[in-house]
């Protein structure tokens, strides 16, 4: 990075800022960062705006752009002739290092970065070719990488000359329409490693502002060009943008930056540029980097509910909120937003119930503030279905469960037990609602037709209640299920609108029925005559209660042969039939059940993968992490009993570790925040060592007698965790 001398140099940029602001004022607000919005869902309520999602980015092409964005691009000015190659530059670097004379290298850097034209002259693969397509940026990526890798190893005056040149380029390009050469220059400048240093942030901010203010057509090119950047460089640019946002929010040295009131546009500009890279990342399968690499954990420490309310209240204005760009918000932060939103809804519903009771001059009852579910263990599913059906109006109240004939009071533990047992019964193969696929180890909706789909609605409501009440469930649905659950994320007002229908591919089928998906993949790659060798039509067959039924994939499908020309259509229709059409009524009931509890704008913030994590938690158990975060009451972590306990637990099989977690917390899943979020506590039980361990699942607390040796502790612990169904009251 740059040293103290460089910092002094950059502290004198007030003239630069003044010049930029003057030019900005001269052209009005044309270049202020704009916010991308999603269109309103047809027949739905007005939604707060989000940044343009990847589906829209994928669909966007020059042919489909509005007429005003199709204006002829300005002619590219002729570029200076530059003949230096990668080898020439590397030779100059070696000579400079050996001799200490950096003149040739200094001249190259100062000339190359002096203007956008010079950047193109140096790094464009062929200066005589226009490179006006989204497929090829025309940038010599190898040369760019070599030049940037060497930059931070050059003397300070060389590095300063690059930054001065960038300032010149930004001033020259502030006004007027952009050419493809300008876009190439922006793409190259974003990769400059100097922008990792806070002393360059004033320049970096103005670069980001100009890129954020480009037209949609220009953004379209940048998105497609960015996806061609190598994974290493792509990740560096993303990390640099995230660091810029973090340090502007919480600067280590506030005096390094202009006052926040004078640069409120810094964060919106950087976030919008980050959105372009997120769109580029989503266009590639598999993506260049994980979606979690776009999370900014710094945002976990800001007032998230204020951000959420700003997004809800001022969604259609130009007021910035991070919720417009949900890819940057971590799953932990989204969980906080959903929990608080749920709590506010619970309080609002409970208050309304109280007001209604008082207005009718009836005596208030504490039970009216809760969703009280009373069930018999022997009739768990039918009782639960009846209770939830009768109490639809109370679904958004705090859940409390009572098992008939048991003395346990629900402080959270009975609720967890109810969820666990109910899910276990509903997903049992003998129940017939879901089919378990051994190859993929997941459940999928049974396509059997029935007269009443209310039980599917119950499962959806259960999932919604789990999210609403912050309970994790052991449900093994494929990722496709959560994609369908967010299609659309807000229930349409028009009940004739289809729900739970999403675009599905062969990859989605691979996650559920890998053997069938492999067969369809073989069909697509078959080199022989498909019609003669397979003798198939656009028709599928399914067994229902011992009877084989046929379904046409398209009108008169039984009369249309599958050929080499139409086999792609056949495979797509087949996949759509299996994952959408054949289970539509079942999934629609499931969808409405989930959203009857979880109807919230907060769902707009979530990716399908994030919904799965919120519902199911993580199946990965890290007992060492649990050991590090465990609290003790009556014991010290160095006590012999505690040392015996952890020796035994860390040596358990995965199955026994899950049983221990279920015994102590009521669930064998790890919450979003990891083991530390369990707040697990081990308390000393003053009872006889002949007693088994006792757990208070409401508080994630294990009461452990001071067993005399490891063998006795292991024996009693295994007996306790293996017989852990039912509740008593001390």
TrEMBL record:
The pathway where this protein functions is: Protein modification; protein ubiquitination
* Catalytic activity field: S-ubiquitinyl-[E2 ubiquitin-conjugating enzyme]-L-cysteine + [acceptor protein]-L-lysine = [E2 ubiquitin-conjugating enzyme]-L-cysteine + N(6)-ubiquitinyl-[acceptor protein]-L-lysine
Leading EC class: transferase
Example of a GO MF term: ligase activity
PROSITE patterns according to UniProt: HECT
UniProt name for this protein: Probable E3 ubiquitin-protein ligase HECTD2
Q: What is its EC number?
A: 2.3.2.26
Purpose of the protein: E3 ubiquitin-protein ligase which accepts ubiquitin from an E2 ubiquitin-conjugating enzyme in the form of a thioester and then directly transfers the ubiquitin to targeted substrates.
Species in which this protein is naturally found: Tychaedon coryphoeus
Top-rank lineage group of the source organism: Eukaryota
Which terms does the UniProt entry file under GO BP? protein polyubiquitination
Instruction: Please list the residue ranges annotated as the HECT domain.
Output: 391-730
Keywords for the protein's UniProt record, in alphabetical order = Ligase, Phosphoprotein, Transferase, Ubl conjugation pathway
InterPro entries annotated for this entry?
E3A/B/C-like, HECT_dom, Hect_E3_ubiquitin_ligase
Active site positions, chain numbering: 698 (glycyl thioester intermediate)
